[in-house]
Amino acid sequence: MRTKAMQTRQAKKWVDRAIIAVLALMGISMLMPFLWLFSMSFRPAAEAYRMPPSFLPPTFDFANYETVLSSSIPFLKIYWNSLYIAVLVTIGQLVTCTLAAFAYARLRFPGRDSLFFVMLIGLMFPVQVTILPIYLGFAKVGLLNNPLGLVLLGLTSSFGVFMLRQFLRSQPKELEEAALMDGAGYFKIFWRISLPQLKPALAALAIITFTGAWNAYFQPRALIESQAAMTLPIAMDLLRGYLGQGNLSLVMAAMSMAILPVVLLFLVAQKMVIEGVTFSGIRA
Questions:
Q1: Does domain 67-280 have CATH number 1.20.1250.20?
Q2: How far apart are CA 177 and CA 43, in angstroms?
């Protein structure tokens, strides 16, 4: 009996080791494009097109980074624009979507389900459908070539409300009902009970929103023409040059700097998701 149990444990160990090995290989394969991106950013322009390519650059040259920062394109100003827009849009959606999700999930008021259905209809329309009225409206109020206009466009999200509402509905509401019976107001219930339960969902929404705002291309391209107000995806177009004839190593250096905030946010928010799941007792 003991021998059979030992064999079972040994077999489980080998299965666990095999799973870890497979996951490690998958992780390395996912990191390879990023490693290649950084490798290309340290090469001179001629070395970027050498065949067959080498994974490591012959020398680690920071000239491409210096060129990006000192070029005629105001890269640091553009970097700040993207960071400004992405941070404010993320904060705005975390606030507005959380409050709306609590109202749709926990409050009862006339027309609640109808309003929620109308809100979800907005998910069916791509941004290309609404860009013309947005452009005309921004032109009238003077928000063209202004990063603040892009912030106002993203202060709330139907997807964010839907995701947080569904997550909140999956959580037990006995504590909220008990607090309501004890005389607590809705805002106190939201702040003390509901909001802590939303921590994993908020971290996920923060990653999705920040990444979407950071990588947004269509709306900034349509609403911004001035270099002083443009965002990083548009700046990459300028660096690539006409028909992609620009310096490839220079573009890779700019992209290497552009992905750092997204990577840092993912690492921080991923930890928050794991901690939220652990302390809230939610089963993965």
A1: no
A2: 62
> What torsion do the CA atoms of 235, 241, 247, 253 make, to the nearest 10 degrees?
10
Q: What is the pLDDT of residues 215-232, one digit of tens each?
A: 999 999 999 988 889 999
State the pTM of this model: 0.83
Residue 281 has pLDDT above 60, yes or no: no
Q: What is the residue type of 35?
A: L
Q: Are 75 and 141 in contact (CB under 8 A)?
A: no
Chain segment 141-173, per-residue pLDDT in tens: 989 999 999 999 999 999 999 999 988 888 888
The closest alpha carbon to 282, from 270, 203, 273, 99, belongs to: 273
Assess whether pLDDT exceeds 60 at residue 277: no
Neighbours of 207 (CB within 10 A): 19
Confidence of residue 50 (pLDDT cuts 50, 70, 90): confident
